[in-house]
Amino acid sequence: MNILAIDLGTTNLKASLLKIDEKDNNIIAVESITKKINPTIPSPRAHEHDPRVIKQELLEIIKHISRKYVVDALITSTYLFATIILNKRFEPLTNIITWMDERSVKYVDLIKDKALEIYRRTGCPPLHIYTLPKILWFSHDNPSLIKGNFILDAKSLLTTWFLGYPITDLSTASGTYQMLNISSLKWDQFTLEIAGISQDQLPEIREAYYLDYINEKIALEFNLQPKIPLILGLYDSGSMIYGLSMGRKDVGVVNLGTSGMLRVVVNKPIIDYSHHMRFQTYYLADGLWLSGGGINNAGVVLEFLLRLLNLDFKVLDEVLNQDPLYPQKTPLVIPLLYKERLFMLPNNIGFLTCKLSPDMAINHLIWGTVEGILMLIKLIEEALEENSIDFNDIMLGGGLAKYQGVVKSLATTLNRKIGVLKGLEASHLGCVLLALNVLEGKRKANEVMYKIRELVSYVNPDINLIDHYSAKYAEFKKLVFALKNYDEATPGSTRNCDKFSLD
């Protein structure tokens, strides 16, 4: 069976043809094509994707693969927090507004007094990344744009192209809109009223296992067989979690890609007991939930640093594929380049570096940045532990998982054993397992799953560095919360840390 997995991410559009061998249940990535998505930036702090460009790229990728191979089914995954307005003829009225777009930040203030109630209803803290603040922004700047038109996410944009109507999966809806009720799994009337819209303007919501057949005219355009099934799928990190957790609850999954996250698979929606709203709760599938948090500042910060220093990206292979050099010498980095989705963090700091010294080199700065990213992940871990969300194993995925030094550093920072899937992308595994559940039943999916578990290797913490990382994290945390109260910080600046006492 050949399954074509479509993955629309923040940075890349990827299509991978995955073959499941019927005899030995191996998954083989027959062919993968990746196209970089260049953002459109019409104004400062804006970050958009042109849907017309994405559709054309998707058309070319699928036609290329389908000319060479028979495609038996398609499954989709897309990034969270994308918002696009379409008219009733499904014509785009805006570009896709991504999570990196910060123009809706000031409109979060309009819901601050209702933030706790919204959080209890939707599992989503008051952050600009969600669709609700973007609707308030659109309504303020151009009310006619919202009135009567469709407000969609990236997944329902794809399904509109393939199926002719907008439908999204519950995981994407839960993590994107800030308007899905975590008790009823329906659009929440309270937040709809705040947004000033009706649920008819939003996509239909269904489980990730939902299957329909691609419109025959569209199938012909994409060079696909008629009556080819399309499986709705999960959001991109949800697909990765589905693959890496392999059906197990109480498993923590860390993703370190352009953005990052730590989420734990649990059997009911759990929100932060405190008013700080330190993590989110999103639906996954099969009655399972994800409690945890995401960070905007992961691989994207390293990309910025390399561009700033005019370094080739290959330097990461040289630096991060080994243990940190003299970790006691790495600077303390607060990598808040972009406004964060962790509600308890300061949002006006920028990339901040402390404790630079004359004997430091570029590798030390790179490693300090990596450590700062991992310490943001540890903030989430602490919040989960304080809410009695227990987990034993941690599985790691994402682009930074390929660097052995990063894996070792994460294991040491969290003081936990880290599992890494070798030889197969985690999101591919999630897509295959989900597609097999739909097309051939759970038994077949389980057979593949048990085979894949043999491909997981584990990395233990470096016992010689546990105390060092623990002390550095305490310093990091103290500084971050001192900065939280520093109201005059300017986005993008580098601050002198001497004015903050860490004693």
Can you give a write-up of this model?
By secondary structure, this protein is α/β, with parallel strands linked by helices. The chain has a domain at about 1-235: ATPase, nucleotide binding domain (Nucleotidyltransferase, domain 5, 2-Layer Sandwich). It has 16 helices and 21 strands. The protein has a seven-stranded mixed beta sheet with strand order 15-16-14-13-19-20-21, sandwiched between helices. Helix 12 packs across helix 13 (about 405-415).
Give a quick set of tags describing it.
single chain, 503 residues, Nucleotidyltransferase, domain 5, seven-stranded mixed β-sheet, six-stranded mixed β-sheet, 21 strands, globular, disordered C terminus
Q: Specify the structural class.
A: alpha/beta
CATH topology of the domain at 2-233: Nucleotidyltransferase, domain 5
Strand line-up in the sheet with most strands: 15-16-14-13-19-20-21
**How many beta-strand segments?**
21
Over all CA atoms, what is the radius of gyration?
Answer: 22 Å
Give the low-confidence spans: 487-503
- Report the CATH superfamily of the domain at 2-233: ATPase, nucleotide binding domain
CATH class of the domain at 2-233: Alpha Beta
Taking all residues together, what is the mean pLDDT?
91
Largest sheet: 7 strands, mixed
Number of helices: 16
